């Protein structure tokens, strides 16, 4: 990775969090009981872009991705780092979050996963983990594989960018989630095709609860007027050692770290 200064960062338009009593009425829900969202993206070219570059995730060890927040703003309670590294967290429909932003003439998509615990082995690690990957694009309207400038998996608070060492399945980057004992989990590049989860865009988070079972979920269009309660939960919830990479406090800084 050859660092370059990435300046002039500007994010896409994000709906403001407005004062509303509902925003304070939330709590935590057990990780296996929190109901995530169906796949929900903006209509048109932006949603098509988000879906085109959605990465595959291969979980080498540890937890699979879980929903971090529900439509009422309740967040995942997580799990203590005890027992098997995948104990209590080896099965979930999961969730993947996406947010887009610009830096000069470049455009980035940040995809993020939440895991209830990060535990290399029993009593090591911590409750809650957030990891992800930033995909840098040369054009915010193209969905071609050749549009990718760099793929940057998250690792221990940073982003390890590669301009030519990544593998694609179509236009999807192949990413792994792994702990090399005794170090905590991180994302990295892989040649193994993993799985996908229902994709939810930052600007599309809705407080309207899904009523369909996961098997019946389809791609839903965004309902921006309901986004504030969910965004606020991700902005204000303390996930301990796990930091939400795409919330208002972290998004711009993380894009600035992902240099290549």
TrEMBL record:
Pfam families: NPP1 (PF05630). The keyword Signal applies. InterPro entries: NPP1. Keywords: Signal, Virulence. It comes from the Eukaryota. Residues 1-19 form the signal peptide. Belongs to the Necrosis inducing protein (NPP1) family. PANTHER family: DOMAIN PROTEIN, PUTATIVE (AFU_ORTHOLOGUE AFUA_5G00600)-RELATED. This is Necrosis inducing protein. It comes from Penicillium concentricum.
């Amino acid at each position: 990775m050859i660092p370059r200064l990435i300046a002039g960062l500007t994010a896409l338009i994000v709906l403001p969090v407005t004062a509303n009593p509902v925003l304070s009425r939330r709590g935590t829900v057990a990780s296996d009981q929190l109901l995530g969202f169906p796949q929900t993206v903006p209509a048109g070219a932006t949603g098509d872009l988000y879906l085109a570059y959605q990465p595959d995730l291969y979980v080498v060890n540890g937890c699979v991705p879980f929903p971090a927040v529900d439509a009422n703003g309740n967040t995942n309670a997580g799990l203590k780092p005890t027992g098997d590294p995948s104990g209590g967290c080896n099965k979930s429909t999961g969730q993947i979050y996406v947010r887009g932003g610009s830096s000069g003439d470049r455009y980035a998509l940040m995809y993020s996963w939440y895991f209830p615990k990060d535990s290399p082995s029993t009593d090591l690690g911590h409750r809650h983990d957030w990891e992800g990957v930033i995909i840098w694009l040369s054009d915010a309207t193209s969905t071609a594989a050749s549009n990718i400038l760099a793929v940057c998996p998250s690792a221990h608070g940073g982003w390890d960018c590669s301009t030519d060492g990544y593998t694609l399945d179509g236009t999807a980057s192949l990413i792994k989630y792994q702990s090399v004992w005794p170090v905590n989990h991180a994302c990295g590049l892989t040649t193994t095709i993993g799985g996908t989860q229902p994709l939810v865009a930052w600007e599309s988070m809705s407080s309207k609860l899904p009523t369909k079972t996961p098997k019946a979920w389809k791609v839903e269009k965004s309902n921006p007027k309901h986004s504030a309660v969910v965004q606020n939960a991700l902005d204000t919830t303390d996930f301990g050692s796990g930091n939400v990479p795409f919330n208002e406090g972290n998004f711009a800084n993380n894009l600035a770290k992902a240099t290549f």
